[in-house]
Amino acid sequence: MSVERRREVVDRRHPSLSIKRQCNLLDISRSGLYYQSKGITEEDLAHMKLIDRQYLQTPFYGARKIAACLKSQGHLVNRKRVRRLMRLMGLKAIYRRPRTSKPAPGHKIYPYLLGGMKITRPNQVWAADITYIPMARGFLYLVAIIDWYSRCVLSWRLSNTLDAGFCVEALEEALRKGSPDIFNTDQGAQFTSETFIGLLEKHDIKVSMDGKGSYNDNLFIERLWRTVKYEEVYLRAYQDGRDAKISLGNYFRFYNSERLHQSHGYRTPAEAYCTTMIETTNGGMVESLTPDPLRIAGPDLKHCPYPVLTMGSTSLI
């Protein structure tokens, strides 16, 4: 459980347990419980949008080079600020790092299973990743799970924190539509959590993880982020989380059921996913492919299911 979640558990009016005792039991500091964040300034939000755009173009740039790029464009930033904002956004320069340290205890290292493998059918490999979504005031994190072969977005979630909960919910939603042979992610804490890995192992899914700092190991979902940001996010100015959820829901529906992909003979991802499934199963698993109305989730950003398509009796996000 993340520190933020443990802080939420504290009951300030508990009849028998003092706040100090609850903090000790939850292994959190009492000072952190009382801390009030000043929030993100308008200037920082503007810089985060610039950093995000630059990172999409040059993911191998670290804080030093990104700061230099922003300075050359007339923005007053230094390396320390860029580094702080990149950490907040969950961004790291992508390059091969020397193995100078051991992984944290309890973090099992899974091999990368896709090297040299030919991906020839849906549900052979799924992949997941997280990206930063800017808004007019503030920002969110977006996780998506895609079918590697068809590029179909199977599920997605928005969250205002980087804990593992919203990733687990996206995985649970995707697994209600099918199950892959292999699931590939990076080595982020969200994807190495016991809950996330346990859910994959429960369904007998092989776990594959990218090498640290490797951009190409999860290339197709990195391409998805470029597509989503240049065709949707950067063309909008989301006013709040609800606005972002509605607009992204509409975009993913368009992406799955209308956007043509040259690599699949100008078929949509949903068509590539469904028709290939019919061919490989030889049973007519899917009889129809029709749009499903977008459901608007409740106010909690961590609970936002978005059915985008239905395939017969099987819905597909």
What would your notes on this structure say?
- With 317 residues, this protein is α/β, with parallel strands linked by helices.
- The chain has three domains: 3-34, no CATH class; 42-89; 125-316, Ribonuclease H-like superfamily/Ribonuclease H (Nucleotidyltransferase, domain 5, 2-Layer Sandwich), CATH 3.30.420.
- It has helices at 3-9, 19-26, 30-34, 42-57, 63-72, 79-89, 165-175, 194-202, 219-231, 241-257, 269-281; strands at residues 125-134, 139-147, 153-159, 182-185, 206-209, 289-291, 309-311, 314-316.
- Helix 4 (42-57) packs across helix 6 and helix 5 crosses helix 6 (79-89).
- The chain is globular and about 60 Å long.
- Mean pLDDT is 80; it is low at 97-104 and 280-317.
Mean of all residue-level pLDDT scores:
80
Strand order, main sheet: write it out.
3-2-1-4-5
| Name given to the CATH homologous superfamily of the largest domain | Ribonuclease H-like superfamily/Ribonuclease H
Overall shape = globular
> What is the structural class?
alpha/beta
Helix-strand string: HHHHHHEEEHEHEHHHEEE
Q: Rounded to an integer, what's the Rg over CA atoms? A: 21 Å
CATH topological fold name of the largest domain? Nucleotidyltransferase, domain 5
Question: What's the CATH architecture name of the largest domain?
Answer: 2-Layer Sandwich
Number of helical elements: 11
